[in-house]
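We treat protein structure as text, and this decision shapes the records that our systems exchange. This encoding replaces a full spatial description with a residue-level series of whole-number codes. Below, we set out a record of this kind in full and without editing:
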Amino acid sequence: MLGVDTHSSVAYQAFTFLLAAVLLSLMAAKSFSPRLTVSRALPRFGTAGEPLPYIVLVRNTGAAALRDIILTERLADPAPPYEEFRLAGSPGGAAPHWMDRLTGGDRWRRLISARTAGSAASAALPDLPPGGSGEVSLTLLPSRRGVIRLQAVSASRPDPLGLARAERLAESPASIIVLPRRYPVPRLSLPGGRKYQQGGVALASSVGESMEFSTLRDYKPGDPPRRIHWKSFARTGKLIVKENHDEYFVRHALALDTFTVPGGNAVFEEAVSVTASFACTVLTQESLLDLLFVGAEAYRFTAGRGLGGAERMLEILAAVQPCADKPFEELSRSVALRHRLVSGCILVLLAWDEERRALVRRLRSLGVPLQTFLVLDPSSGSALPGPDEGVRVLETGRIAEGLANL
């Protein structure tokens, strides 16, 4: 625009020179067509908020050497589907601004931010001759729990003038499960003793105690092989199995409140992290742990020695989502139905209302030892439990400090 009048200005000369340089750079970038294959050595799990290093193996399958190549991980497109974008509201349920109603810019940025699984750093690839191979260490930083989907590895290099960067994608879909963030938790002195587990013979063999030998009887189809009395078999030639008295062992329940309030996603994520922290701690104390929560239905997962460990429990928590179409009574009923089996219960709640109070009172009236934790945003003005209600409050932003003081 400054060089329109070529008689009174020489700006058109600079424009012509720069335009030619840019065109030459773009033409040089178009000629960049490396032939390479990539494969990743990915870990099975990552953790939200913690760097995740891994190795990318690169092979030059072309006839030209690869030099000055930068590798970057490309994640799956976080753009939401149209229906999700159309139904998205403002934070906290407030009415959207008129500009957002017109353009949807705020909603789009908020959804993109919420759906972005993480960020990836770039790294330089060592020079590779034709047919040569090399490896590069890349690092992902997962921003949230769930699944990170990797789409491709980008190979790029600048053109000779340094004005444009040529890029080619090596498609290589993969995924990583990102576990919830965990906080250090002191060893808890969980109340409650051993409880009788009806039909718990298989469990008692690894985590409990079978009180004493009862009798011998003939083998029946379906009896586990470990109960065969081999000495009797050697003596009589018939399969004989052992019977024991009732089995007793320690079993705890860990109940997660998934019934969020509008704008409570950050609190919910912290509650999942608190639950994951307790899951790892309880499962180091030689007991069974029942994880209870409500999603599409009421779920229960049992872990402990012989039934899978904390890794399986964390994998489940990586996928748990808020429940919006069921009443809180679903969780209350699921926890109360197990009161005869569990030695104690840990509750992780998102609010302190009459329904939650009723659940705590109900469990105490049933004689279930309780540890109750309320996760909340201190700026939300949520109701707080009284000092005599036995509920520990964990504030977002100070979760680690609250757990360290247990």
Summary: The two ends are 69 Å apart (CA to CA).
